[in-house]
Automatic annotation (TrEMBL):
The keyword Metal-binding does not apply. It holds the Pfam family T2SSF. Its main location: membrane. PANTHER family: INTEGRAL MEMBRANE PROTEIN-RELATED (PTHR35007), PILUS ASSEMBLE PROTEIN (PTHR35007:SF2). This is Pilus assembly protein TadB. It is a multi-pass membrane protein. One of its GO terms (cellular component) is plasma membrane.
């Protein structure tokens, strides 16, 4: 019996070692194949097409299914969220949750109803400030999607502005080396992440599908309101019409954006000085004066020259 057990253990470890070896060979061959596909199709094959969703994203997508029931009513009750404005916010934010205008409008009312019932439950249970929750929870539920989508649009445009100068320098260097614009865009965007990569990847797809270049440029303008990015696309449109060398356009735009960024940093530094002075005047100085006055008072009461000793108390 012991011999069978020992034989089984030996066979188990032998099979385990073979499985590890074959799995490593599979991973190596898969990586070689992916690299070959990436070189042939000019795409980043190692990009995670379906990223692991966070708990908030999964919860949000499940919740949006119930929002469809309120979509018709939500399009009528559109305070602070007209359909045209919502479409623009979704477009500029990249629409990470794949929302439509109808579903977004329904989501507001769904969260309003959820907030109302949550406030009523807290009132029945007797939680602190539950009488205010009945009023503020529905308002919070209504305005929460608006606030989130507008913040995402703002962050996306800021990320676009931050990465643009380095992107333009790299593109300009590639163009001066004799690479075509489309080829340079396909190669360079592989080394960038975020909205810049998304926008120019979509631009390349539109060009590959036969969309006129001018139309693809105007689509970029509609999806983004960043001033630097719009200035670049307008310069490319003008260069396309007038025949200006594209490499020169990218180089000049990169230099202008860096100069503009320096001016913005100087402006922020100039605005920070009065704020520091304000904090020093109304917070640091009074606290310091109170500490000094308190020490003087304690010394007057408990020190060697205390007033109690002078009067023999």
């Amino acid at each position: 019996m012991d011999a069978y057990i020992i034989l089984a253990v030996i066979l188990f470890w032998l099979m385990f070692g073979l499985s590890i070896r074959h799995f490593s060979l599979y991973i190596r061959e898969k990586r070689v194949l992916i690299e070959h596909i990436s070189d042939v199709t000019y795409t980043d094959a190692f990009e995670k097409k379906a990223k692991k969703k966070s708990r908030r994203a999964v919860w949000f997508q499940k919740m949006t299914k119930y929002a469809d029931e309120f979509s018709d009513l939500g399009q009528r009750i559109n305070f602070f969220s007209e359909n045209a404005d919502v479409a623009e916010w979704l477009r500029k934010s990249g629409n990470p949750y794949q929302l439509t205008v109808e579903r977004f409008q329904g989501l507001k009312l769904f969260l309003l109803v959820v907030g109302f019932f949550a406030g009523m439950i807290s009132l029945i249970i007797g939680l602190p400030f539950s009488q205010y929750a009945v009023i503020f929870n529905p308002l919070l539920g209504y305005f929460l999607p608006i606030i989130i989508i507008r913040q995402q649009a703002k962050k996306r445009q800021e990320a676009l502005r931050r990465d643009l100068p380095d992107f333009l320098d790299t593109i300009s260097t590639s163009l001066q080396a004799g690479v075509s614009l489309d080829q340079a865009l396909r190669e360079v965007i592989r080394f960038f992440d975020g909205p810049l990569r998304e926008e120019f990847s979509r631009f390349n797809y539109e060009i590959d599908l036969g969309v006129p270049r001018e139309t693809a440029y105007r689509n970029l303008l509609e999806r983004n309101d960043n001033q630097e990015f719009q200035g670049l696309i307008k310069s490319l449109l003008q260069g396309l019409k007038l025949g200006v060398p594209i490499a020169t356009t990218f180089k000049v735009q990169a230099e202008d954006m860096r100069q503009l960024r320096e001016e913005q940093v100087k402006e922020l530094a100039a605005k920070a000085s009065p704020k520091v002075t304000l904090v020093t005047t109304f917070l640091v100085a009074p606290v310091s004066i109170l500490m000094i006055a308190g020490l003087m008072l304690l010394n007057l009461i408990y020190g060697e020259n205390s007033i109690f000793k002078l009067f023999n108390f």
